[in-house]
Design brief:
CATH class of the largest domain: Alpha Beta
Structural class: alpha+beta
CATH architecture of the largest domain: 3-Layer(aba) Sandwich
Strand content: 15-25%
Number of strands: 13
Number of helices: 9
Largest sheet: 5 strands, antiparallel
Radius of gyration: 20 Å
Strand order of the largest sheet: 4-3-2-1-8
CATH topology of the largest domain: Rossmann fold
CATH superfamily of the largest domain: Alpha/Beta hydrolase fold, catalytic domain
Length: about 260
């Protein structure tokens, strides 16, 4: 949801935050973060030294979308693990009954005057994932993936395939999803493009959500039914072996699927 000052580069300690690219760098090397964790970090660096309440952080990261407070806590916990290791100290402070404060001194530059920071020398980068992500994203935004349907019992499950890597990766969303809207949110689209840069990424809308068939309120699906939807999609795409990445309630379902079909 954060979109102001997107042409700025923020620096603190050994870290660089490129707002426009959605990248966190440590000594010139990319540090993986989820899109919402990056938005949380951006909120902190933009207001470094100031107290941010939980409500303010949640508004800046999720806007008007209702999410549980635990989502913010998870983002801050992740950021602390990443930043404290790289800095040797505690950067995000908790102020009881007040909120949080980003304690590190942050310098700000316009991206045009700091291009060398946002794009480290090629020799310092890991395998050329950034180039692949950019190419994938440009292609996807120009021509979004085709939505197809797999039959799971009497229900049609919408799915998409992105990328052609050696690993089949099934991305399982949480409570709700919508395949077409995935690609309209720039940071989330960039995140998916990064996954598709090293895999054949398989996306789908669970039954009752997005482009998949609706289900009656009194017949909401069980984990076993949702698991069968994944199986139907994998059969439709001809996948014999896949890795699952589950978000929120997609995590337990992914774990159940892996335990049920360990092969």
């Amino acid at each position: 949801m954060i979109n102001e000052a997107t042409d700025c580069i923020y620096e603190f300690g050994s870290f660089t935050v490129d707002a426009a690219e959605g990248l966190l760098l440590c000594e010139g090397r990319p540090v993986p973060l989820t899109p919402r964790a990056f938005d949380t970090l951006l909120a902190f660096v933009e207001r470094s030294g100031h107290v941010l309440t939980k409500d303010e952080l949640m508004r800046r990261v999720w806007g008007e979308v209702f999410v549980e407070e635990n989502n913010l806590s998870q983002n801050i916990s992740l950021l602390r693990k990443v930043l404290d290791v790289g800095s040797g100290g505690k950067i995000i402070e908790t102020l009881p009954k007040r909120g949080y404060r980003f304690a590190a001194a942050v310098s700000v530059r316009r991206k045009e005057s700091a291009a060398d920071l946002s794009a480290p020398p090629l020799a310092q980068r890991p395998a050329p994932i950034t180039g692949k992500v950019t190419q994938n994203l440009e292609r996807i935004l120009t021509q979004p993936p085709e939505t197809r349907y797999a039959k799971s019992g009497d229900v049609n499950i919408a799915y998409q395939i992105v990328g052609s890597g050696p690993l089949d990766l099934v991305f399982v969303m949480g409570w709700v999803s919508h395949l077409e809207h995935f690609w309209t949110e720039p940071r989330f689209a960039r995140f998916l493009a990064r996954l598709a840069s090293f895999s054949r990424l398989i996306l789908f809308d669970k039954r009752g959500t997005g482009l998949s068939d609706r289900v009656p309120v009194n017949e909401l699906p069980t984990l076993e039914q949702r698991m069968d939807d994944v199986r139907a999609v994998l059969e439709a795409v001809g996948s014999e072996r896949a890795a699952l990445c589950g978000v929120s309630e997609g995590g337990p379902m992914s774990a159940l699927f892996a335990a049920t079909y360990p092969e």
